[in-house]
Amino acid sequence: KQALVNHAVEFGNREITPAFNDLTKRHGILFSNGDTWKEMRRFALTTLRDFGMGRKMSEGIITKECRYLIEEFEQLEGKPFSNTKAINYATANVISALMFAKRFDYNDPAFQAMVQRENDIILLTGSASVWMYNFFPWLGPFLKNWRELIKNVESNMAEARKLIADLKETLDPEKCRCFVEAFLIRKKQLEDSEIQNLHYHDENLLYSVINLLEAGNDTTANTVKWSLLYMAKNPQIQDRVQEEL
């Protein structure tokens, strides 16, 4: 209580390790602190709720993607298979719909590579050599996993920049379709009103999108995979789940 309540300001910030500091430059939602974190978190929660997070509106996006996922499973005609990639693609598409108002075909090579890099980033971030970087940053050029992590992050950032640039070209303030457009509209409103804008800039947009894509896809996909495994091992639970749905 002394730390988290009575001295919340002093103890409220998140520890940013050297690795995450270099990867995110303290922009975005997950690895920022202070006013930037508060504003980006508030904007993300408000915007995602506006687009249906936790409401009926988001169910349409999820249901639509489920149909594509079922079609993918049906093509295997009951043969044993790993569902990892298909589920990763499905969850990535749901998040992409909220971020970019766009879904990708499961067979799109660029999309497959992007999702694979997202998974690799999560694994590499937890590797021993990357944690060693936190203690000895000067070792970075000599650590294979650190070099691979930087390469994957930069590649996904380049893909995100392209998608953001496409949305900038077609931006219509009267028709907001996704998180990126909501951010761009807010940024333009502040610029037009000449209000000091410390948080709504391109780097915060880019890193916020990357944060939501990578963290959201990994956690959601793993939850779905464990749920399917649990129901496969306990078939009686499937009826209860179907009733709830």
From TrEMBL:
Record keywords: Coiled coil, Iron, Metal-binding
Pfam families: p450
Cofactor(s) listed: heme
SUPFAM superfamilies listed in its UniProt record: Cytochrome P450
Any GO molecular function: oxidoreductase activity, acting on paired donors, with incorporation or reduction of molecular oxygen, reduced flavin or flavoprotein as one donor, and incorporation of one atom of oxygen
GO BP, sorted A to Z: organic acid metabolic process; xenobiotic metabolic process
Signal peptide start and end residues: none
GO cellular component: cytoplasm
Coiled-coil boundaries: 143-170
InterPro entries tied to this protein: Cyt_P450 (IPR001128), Cyt_P450_E_grp-I (IPR002401), Cyt_P450_sf (IPR036396), Cytochrome_P450_fam2 (IPR050182)
Superkingdom in the source lineage: Eukaryota
PANTHER family documented for this protein: CYTOCHROME P450 508A4-RELATED, CYTOCHROME P450, FAMILY 2, SUBFAMILY AC, POLYPEPTIDE 1
Family: Belongs to the cytochrome P450 family.
Protein name: Cytochrome P450, family 2, subfamily W, polypeptide 1
Organism: Nothobranchius kuhntae (Beira killifish)
